[in-house]
Amino acid sequence: MSDRGPGGADRVPGRPGGETPQGSRAEQQRARLAERLEAVVASVPGVVWESGTSPDGNQADFVSPYVETLLGYSVEEWLTAPGFWISIVHPDDRRRVEEEVGRIAAGGGKGSVRFRWVDREGQAVWVEAHLAAVLDRRGRTAGMRGVALDVTDRVTTLAALSHNEVRFRKLVEHSADAITLFSAEGTILYGTPASTRILGVGPEELSGRSVFELVHPEDRQGLAERLTAALRHPGEPVAVEARARHRDGGWRHLEGVLTNLLEEPGVAAVVANYRDVTGPRGAREALRASEARLRAIFDSTAIGIAQVDLTGRILEANPPFAMHLGYVPEELIGRLVTDITHPEDVALGLDHFKDLVDGKTAAYQIEKRYVRKDGSVMRGRLTASAVRDQDARTRFVIGMVEDVTERERLEAQLRQAQKMEAIGQLAGGVAHDFNNLLGIITGYSELLEKDLGPDHQGLGRLQQIRRAADRAAGLTRQLLAFSRKQILQPRILDLGEVVSDVEKMLRRLIGEDVQVVTAFGPGLGRVQADPGQIEQVLVNLAVNARDAMPGGGKLIIETANADLDEAYARTHDGVAPGRYVLLSVSDTGHGMDAETLSHMFEPFFTTKLEGKGTGLGLATVYGIVRQSGGHVNVYSEPGRGTTFRIYLPRTAHRQPDLAAPGPISPPRGSETVMLVEDAEVLRLLMKEVLDMSGYRVLEIARPEEAAGVAEAHEGEIHLLVTDVVMPNLSGRDTAERVRARRPSIKVLYVSGYTDDVITHHGVLEATTHLLQKPFTTLAFLRRVREVLDQADAPQKT
């Protein structure tokens, strides 16, 4: 039976007017979407893979071609070898990766892990892998998806370009889809090797023939209409379906797209991309599965991804990208990237984007700021790459954005902490050496004052020298407080009681125009700290608050219990999670800007006029709080006052009974004292003071000689007086060696600061005797007498 209508024209059975079946619109849209998603995944500069049927994630059934670029392994190796992606993990990283995969598989969630893959050449490649569980309809883990980004930065732009050129040529030559170029009239100009597999006809046999010769007579009219549509819309793909004759005489159902590139230099042809869909149901199901897989990868990866056209307008954005900026994906479609970029970073981004579009670079990575929907700023690391056609013309750009705001904040916090630690070490060292000098000045001034007598005309000048030395000693004590090397005498305290005790003094100190308000939280816990040091903290903060309120205001002091969790500890350097007591000191003064806040704890930094402050007040606060095991946060804005929040660890211990105070004035003595001090002038002063008070002194300059003197001396040695920090041998080691020969000897340490050989993080052992430099001769003699008169008992060294 003939299918010819009136006049002998070809027609299609069951289609009025000779209309050719062109496939459903939905299938065409899915095909275009699948093509776009395939291009997106193929362009991601990382390895994308999925195991849809392996709950443990080991057996992959999809991997992006980038695996060949990154590691040198083929897609077939990845897919056919069981557990291949795990097997190439560096041995040192494999257990950690397997544990993370197991955790994600068990919980059905997502996760990230950084590890090394070993490439085909045996080289380690660091990657950041973002993994997500694939769930079945019952919500159980059925497989695993992964996206691994190269973080080694070892591939240069030139190498990437060269590799892409080879890869794209191989993709064209070995693609499962056939590509044919023909003229506007349908004359075939070029065909890829895939035509041999699809039609049994090689590229050389196709050249010069008309495409209509190969098409089924019933489909020629439809092909002509689709070709006309493509010619009318240059550059836009037009879907087409037709049957073509195979060499064996049978017909193959083909499906593809036509694109008019006649005006494109180097192409000048209509490009047909087509595939064999003779089994349409299986092909369409595969298409839908591919579409779903690519969409799931695009949506579920932890990295923000956006597709951008050549004008910088967003074509598509995945949920993580939108979430970073506080939007939903639909709100970003059609917006320019410059709309969400910080104004100061727009120029930087545009220069790189233009180079990428123009083909000057294959990819680039920068850090820039984005503006979120709520107006806040996010710092992101952008990795951008171009998707290009076979003529190396850019079709669109893929951008991947990682939020690094928190990381940079923590890095800045760490740098500040390291700076403060370095300053503290310097301050402690300077104070230690300076204390030795001050001790000499103070001691000889006292002796000289006795020699001169009350009527000597130089006595007043000498007293001025002593006062200057006392003031200098006060400065060194503040430096030691900042450097966390001062001696503490900790007690179990109720901070509410400390505030109440010092409140009256604060009122007199800050004046009547500043109102002092206190508020104590219920059930306040106890802390272990030096009450004198805590009072100093309150006084320093009160004085600063007074200076910030020249016209009067409020000083608010509050206490409360506080529990700090791990989330808080992660965002505050040097803080351990746990139970704390909060001491808050606020004022209604002029506040501080960000620049001032960044320097306020540094020694000698001050915003006050010359002569109005030393710049050590807040440095002292910082050192006392840190040495007491706590930390301090400051909140301030210009014109809105300042709040210092001090957190000290809570303790369950009770305060032990304190020893009775010693005698008011020390009596003279006749005991034998071994004096070990490497600073010569200070040693001579101490010996002279002891000699004048009736003691017999064994003077030793080198600490390593002390044990020999102790062993050789005939008669009892009652007391060892030794410096803490000395060359070659510490004071503690010296005491241990002497005690090995004289077990009953008592020990008094002297030092410009306390070292870890005697103290633990600056807190003095209760049974250790230590006198801090600089000291007066009276204080020295009293302490010697106090140690000698103490009942024999085990003493810490």
Description:
The protein has about 800 residues and is an alpha+beta fold. The protein has five domains: about 30-155, Beta-Lactamase (2-Layer Sandwich), CATH 3.30.450; about 175-285, PAS domain (Beta-Lactamase, 2-Layer Sandwich), CATH 3.30.450; about 305-405, PAS domain (Beta-Lactamase); about 490-650, Histidine kinase-like ATPase, C-terminal domain (Heat Shock Protein 90, 2-Layer Sandwich), CATH 3.30.565; about 670-790, 3-Layer(aba) Sandwich (Rossmann fold). The chain is built from 25 helices and 29 strands. The strands form six sheets. Strands 16, 17, 18, 19, 20, 21 and 22 form a seven-stranded mixed sheet that branches. β23, α22 and β24 (about 695-700) form a beta-alpha-beta unit. The radius of gyration is 41 Å and the shape is elongated. Residues about 1-20, about 155-160, about 480-485, about 610-615, about 655-665 and about 755-765 have low confidence and may be disordered.
